[in-house]
Fold this protein.
Amino acid sequence: MGNVVNYIKWRGDLSFDDSPFNEVDNLALSLLIYNDFDGIVPEKGETSSISVKDASEWYFTKHSLMDLGRLDFDWLLYYMAKTKRFGDLRLSDYIDISDSDENMMFTAFTIHLPDGTLFVSFRGTTMDIDDWRLDFRISFEEIGAQKAAADYLKFITEKYAGDIYVGGHSKGGNLAVYSAMNVPDIVKNRIKRIYSNDGPGFAPELLDEQKFNIVKDRITHIVPTFCVVGMLFELKIPHEIVASDGEKILQHSGMTWKVEGDHFVKKRYLSEESVVYNKAIDDWIGNATMEQRQAFTRDIFDAMKAAGAVSVYDISKGGFHDFGTILLSAANSESKTKIVFGKFFGSLWRSFEKIRFVDTIKSLQGLIDIFLIFIGIIFLTIPQEVYTILGGIIALGVAIWNAVMILKAGVRDEIPFLKRGRMIFHLIVMSFMVFILSNLERIPTWTNVLMAIVFFSLVVASIRYVVKNKKTISGKAKFWMILVAVVNLNIGIVSLVTPQQLDYGKSLTVGSYLILVGIVRFIIQLLEQTQNNVEPSRYYEED
């Protein structure tokens, strides 16, 4: 299983006659535009074109393959040029505008497929912070790149005949949808498919519903499992969720998306973190005015700059320190931006508020977790005396419980044989507990044995939880529950085999472990609850 580059290498020997245009071809052409073709691909308005093979030869006279990362876009051009499928495709009408004074960054070109169909490809957002700053402006205004995209697509439809695919990645996906919505109606009929690869939607205040409804059935929206950008101003269309080998925000790069054969590896859900973030973002966007979004965009990117970030990679690898610097910088911003920040974090908190903490605590598993944490605290508080005190309390409690059971059995109306047996059993257990209480020096040893039984019980409880919730529990939760069960089993065996070994260090270790296990088990149940609260109609698509 590989990515889009592996797809080009493995299936590049198949022509478009042998294997029709597909969703992975769309991604390849949407990402190809990220390379710098200035001076290589004929510019918009010129009548000539250049093959991918020849463009590659020109490109690599200026660029080296040395020191390239696995996810660099150069590899797309390099391997495309070597294939039957892509090598002879023609590139034309290149346009590249970068004008910081006009807040304009726009790049596009047109690919000519063998059957006369065109693919208009719009460049998306790079990982540069300033590029992202411009793109966040879609939250409060129509950006210059959108208007340029509509003009470009109109120009291409007037210059060439034939059907058209329109596509792009990130901002490029947004431009693809916007341009298709805003070309003349007579041209819209020539558009076969619009590909938005993790592209954001449009602010509700700026979306022309009538224009959108005309093209929405031809939009293919593809997003990775950890998706934030593609869910920003989420459009009311289906989402194809694909697997990625990237971590969190780096899944935004289409180079990380997993490909098998001629299609993406599909997933049914967005990741749990992505769902929480998207709900919180949707909440504050719905409550923020256009003016507040504008202030937020200005101040949050100023804060990123203050943290020393130049690219999104810096934020993703900067850790909590850089993130904390961003928040501190934003805290000194204008009051309107503070309101937006407050709404955002309030939304995030409300997402967690929806978790039913009390219900979780009242459940059998929740009671077990609280009990483990309580016992762990006792072990840490009185490590020297804990075995004697804990053993004495347990023995006394069991003795009293059995005494009560003897009295209940005595007045119960049942077969004499069963009544006598029940009373004898409880009497034996009560006598054994009294024996333990009368030999205080032996209590710690017996407590160790009882602790072994507790650990064995925890093993059974963890396994029962996994089996009972096998249809809803995530793979990560299963792993942690099984891991806890294995550790509990080993501790139980050690405690049972060496009940005489009682020391200060052992008490601290056992106490710390019990608290940790109780907290981990509790968190697992809360996380499972957030997953079960996800609205399937919004985050689930049929394969």
About this structure: Confidence is low (pLDDT under 50) at residues 319-324, 533-543. The two ends are 18 Å apart (CA to CA). DSSP finds 21 helices and ten strands in the chain.
